[in-house]
UniProtKB/TrEMBL annotation:
Pfam families: EAL (PF00563), GGDEF (PF00990), PAS_4 (PF08448)
Domain EAL: residue ranges: 460-722
Residue stretches making up the PAS domain: 161-231
The protein, known as: EAL domain-containing protein
Residue ranges occupied by any GGDEF domain in the UniProt entry: 317-451
PANTHER family: BIOFILM ARCHITECTURE MAINTENANCE PROTEIN MBAA, DIGUANYLATE CYCLASE DGCP
Domain PAC: 235-287
Xref: InterPro entries: Biofilm_reg_signaling, EAL_dom, EAL_sf, GGDEF_dom, Nucleotide_cyclase, PAC, PAS, PAS-assoc_C
PROSITE patterns registered for this protein in UniProt: EAL, GGDEF, PAC, PAS
Top-level taxon of the source organism: Bacteria
């Protein structure tokens, strides 16, 4: 089948969709027609199924998703006389195998379509069972009325009534039994005898109360006592019985009181519908809906049910939740394949189950390589720690996959505390955050949740999700910090520093959001916006200096992230911004951190070489904080070294730290020998500035000169220098 053949309804035309529905209806009719009691021919029956197929296809893509249509389809099958249990199982098989194939996935992913299809199967089975139950109950009522009428007519015409009653009694498709008010079984039909194992003497002559079952509800026998006392005329319950071979028979039981002509209670009439297969089907569907298909562990649905009960356990109850994520599982999948990864998950599931065997403990798989273990009791802090330690110890035992010995590692986040006060979603979120904290600390360990760390992580997440809209709403702005020539003290340029005016958190510096922007990829559009604004401002400063001013424009320094360096449009974007503003390339300097450039290959350096050849300055920011040395600078297109403030803090007082002074003196000497200018960051005192000038540093920036501020502050500072 081609991809176009498997496309959803939104990817094909009406004629093609109609053809797919017809093929689905054909497969469906062929599957269930042999077990359907209908007078229609198979083509006619197929036409009858076509609108039902359309309802299923539409339900598969309805937004919001609503499986009610599938429940109506199940009822329609019963209405079309598809009452054989095999018709339901064959229908579920056809829907499972062909509905998504012919009618999905549409706008949804294949995984979502399969999940929806599974829920449609459940709803269809429920609708089928409900309709069959109602149909059977209607038949039961009709039979009961016939039986009662037969007993009444028997007083007038015994022979005629007996004949009619026997016809109903013996030929009925449901089990019928008659007992006296003492509970002695007097008569049973063949259907009821077969339901109990086929031996009539094991049924007739027994007492009704001998069929008690441990799962009987107390209300069942209370209603029975009321009926034999004449206080009620009938009751209906779902009741289990033991068959002769010890197996359990589940029934829908209706018991009616038969009275004589004077209204005196005389007999009890029981009508039984065998619901054992339907119950087993419901149990199977329930199991599949609450357990992971790969590992057999409880899935997210069942886990949330158990966690919800644990959190609602009442005063004095506590819980402990261990959230496990395997370390390096993606590498195993990538190197050995998904089949090996699945076998690994099955082995991990088995080991986890062996760790959580105490009362109140359970293990579940949330999805992928994420598992959770829940413990409840009075000392859950100790129990959760011990459970996490057992899990890590069990994972540490090597296993063999594809002929390789592998040791599985995992990171566990633990949330423990009293029940109540938190929702299941909040507990799981805290455990997830804590697990990633354990993973960041090196993995193969467990950590307990920390409310403060959770709050910081939630804040980071909130900032991450708000970043795209913040850029569109114009919440970012730029402050400028002057770059001053140490030789004459005049303003040489400025560094553009982006800020975020957050609606709730106020003004945020780049340390709060630049790492988040790099992680999400938003750093590229944000960086382009900063470049545009900074270059536009530099051009504005040049125009304010006067058209006749022959002095070169102030240089604007713009920070460049590693993600921007890898972006293929870096050179084209920079050229476009410069050409649109009219700013000379020499007035722009791009700053990159030392760690982003040292060790870079030629492909990564190529765009920087192109910009440097145009005249754009390239500065190596935070120099000295990495593992570089000046010899490596020969191959870099760098024109400026920005010396990290850690080297010059010892010069803020007089006399200066002699070691710091020697280091700076050596760096400046070597940098100048390579024809590189040296800029110093973090200058805060006049003594520091004077010593740096004596050592030959070219430019400096810091609070000694000015803090970052709006553009007009820099312009006023430049005018003051000119005066």
């Amino acid at each position: 089948m081609t991809p176009s053949q498997a496309a959803g309804p939104e990817a094909v035309g009406p004629d093609d969709l109609q053809d797919r529905l017809s093929r689905f209806a054909t497969i469906w009719s062929r599957a269930i027609f042999p077990v359907t009691a209908t007078s229609l021919t198979r083509p006619e029956f197929e036409e009858h199924l076509l609108p039902l197929a359309r309802q299923l296809a539409e339900a598969l893509h309805t937004r919001p998703f609503d499986p009610a249509a599938a429940q109506r389809v199940g009822g329609a099958l019963v209405g079309a006389h598809c009452t054989d249990p095999d018709a339901l199982s064959r229908t579920l098989g056809v829907v499972d195998a062909y509905l998504v194939l012919y009618c999905g996935p549409g706008r949804e992913s294949a995984e979502d379509s399969r999940a929806r299809c599974a829920r449609l199967q459940h709803a269809l089975a429920a609708g089928f069972a409900l309709a069959l139950r109602e149909r059977t109950l209607a038949e039961q009522e009709a039979i009961a009325r016939s039986a009662l009428a037969a007993r009444s007519v028997a007083m007038e015409a015994l022979h005629a009534t007996e004949t009619r009653f026997r016809a109903v009694f013996e030929d009925a498709a449901i089990g019928i039994g008659i007992a006296d008010l003492d509970g002695n079984v007097l008569e049973v039909n063949d259907t009821l005898t077969r339901m109990f194992g086929g031996l009539e003497h094991h049924v007739r002559g027994r007492k009704v109360n001998e069929w008690a079952h441990p799962e009987d509800r107390p209300l069942t026998w209370n209603m029975y006592d009321e009926l034999v006392r004449g206080e009620r005329d009938h009751y209906r319950v779902e009741k289990p019985f033991y068959r002769n071979d010890g197996t359990v028979l589940w029934t829908n039981l209706t018991v009616s009181l038969l009275r004589d002509a004077d209204g005196v209670p005389q007999y009890q009439l029981a009508l039984m519908e065998d619901t054992t297969e339907r119950r087993l089907l419901n149990l199977r569907l329930r199991y599949e809906a609450t357990h992971d298909a790969l590992t057999g562990l409880p899935n997210r649905t069942l886990f949330f049910e158990r966690l919800g009960k644990a959190l609602a356990a009442g005063e004095g109850a506590r819980f402990g939740l261990c959230y496990l994520d395997l370390d390096g599982f993606k590498a195993i999948n990538d190197s050995l394949g998904h089949s090996a990864g699945d076998r690994l998950l099955v082995e991990v599931a088995d080991r986890l189950q062996s760790c959580a065997t105490a009362p109140g403990e359970m293990v579940a798989r949330l999805g992928g390589d994420e598992f959770v273990a829940l413990t409840t009791g009075r000392e859950t802090q100790r129990e959760a720690s011990e459970l996490a330690a057992r899990i890590l110890s069990a994972l540490a035992v090597p296993l063999t996959l594809e002929g390789r010995e592998i040791i599985v590692r995992g990171s566990i986040g633990i949330v423990e505390g009293p029940a109540g006060g938190r929702t299941s979603a909040e507990v799981l979120r805290s455990a997830d955050i804590t697990m990633y904290r354990a993973k960041s600390a090196g993995g193969n360990r467990f950590e307990f949740s920390d409310p403060e760390a959770d709050a910081r992580a939630i804040t980071r997440h909130g900032l991450t999700t708000a970043l795209p809209a913040a850029l569109e709403r114009g919440e970012f702005f730029i402050e400028y910090q002057p770059l001053v020539r140490l030789g004459d003290g005049r303003v040489h340029g400025a560094e553009a520093l982006v800020r975020w005016s957050h609606p709730q958190h106020g003004v945020l510096g780049p340390d709060h959001f630049i790492p988040l922007a790099e992680h999400t990829g938003l750093i590229v559009p944000l960086g382009r916006w900063v470049l545009q604004e900074a270059v536009r401002q530099a051009r504005s400063w040049h125009e304010q200096a006067g058209a006749g001013d022959s002095a070169p424009p102030l240089r604007i320094n713009v920070n460049l992230s590693p993600a921007q360096l890898h972006h293929p449009g870096l050179v084209a974007d920079t050229v476009d911004v410069l050409e649109r503003s009219g700013l000379p390339p020499g007035a722009l300097c791009l700053e990159l951190t030392e760690s982003a450039l040292i060790g870079a290959d030629e492909d990564l350096l190529k765009p920087l070489r192109q910009l440097a050849e145009m005249g754009v300055g390239i500065a190596l920011d935070d120099f000295g904080t990495g593992y570089s040395n000046l010899a490596n600078l020969r191959r870099l297109p760098v024109s400026v070294l920005k010396l990290d403030r850690s080297f010059t803090q010892g010069m803020q007082q007089h006399p200066a730290d002699p070691v710091d002074r020697k280091i700076v003196e050596g760096i400046v000497s070597l940098a100048h020998s390579l024809e590189l200018a040296v800029t110093v960051e973090g200058v805060e005192t006049g003594a520091q500035a004077e010593q740096l000038r004596e050592l030959g540093c070219d430019t400096a920036q810091g609070w000694y000169y000015a803090r970052p501020g709006p553009p007009d502050c820099l312009h006023r500072l430049s005018l003051a220098d000119a005066v």
